[in-house]
Amino acid sequence: MNRSELLAALARHRPATAQEGQHLAATIDFVSRHEHCCRRSLAVGHITASSWIIDQDASHALLTHHRKLDRWLQLGGHVEDDSDVLAAALREAREESGLATLHAVDDGIFDIDVHPIPARRDEPAHHHYDVRFLLQADRGAQLTISDESHDLRWFSLAELCALPGDESIRRMVDKMQRRADTLSPALSR
Fold this sequence. Notes:
Layout lengths: L2 H10 L5 H16 L11 E10 L5 E7 L4 E3 L1 E4 L6 H13 L5 E2 L6 E7 L8 E11 L12 E8 H6 L4 H21 L2
Parallel strand pairs: 1-7
Antiparallel strand pairs: 1-2, 1-4, 2-3, 2-8, 5-7, 6-7
């Protein structure tokens, strides 16, 4: 997926909420203005790739307890030198979970989020323009916690709804619930 393919995929995405619509517009503007939008070295921000990983019956989602941010999040990270955002999301999900078998439910974008990243030792404050994909995995498969995490855990829908804080997690749960009837049959392929 090159930059023009990313822009086309973003244009096809239909946001679920007004806030996601704002994130989508900001992401399209960012990608349009920055030729190297996926490079981590772009100081103002960069595209990141994440995965909302659900189990076979779409009743649970896998989250990581992020070591640096000290909160439960979807798996994901930097696109690095690869401009194929879906491939980057799959790579990050495998690296952060140890799951060898992951399947994209479809190749469309599942969610878009833009969030600020505070300055660190050798990085200025910047934004992550996070492009998220819906993946499926076997909840019974062995998980391996990466160095970036404190923990990995499958959360039921009720547990996800009870997590504190993160609006984007709630938005993805809502999307998952709205699509549950169409997801389960698609996952059994």
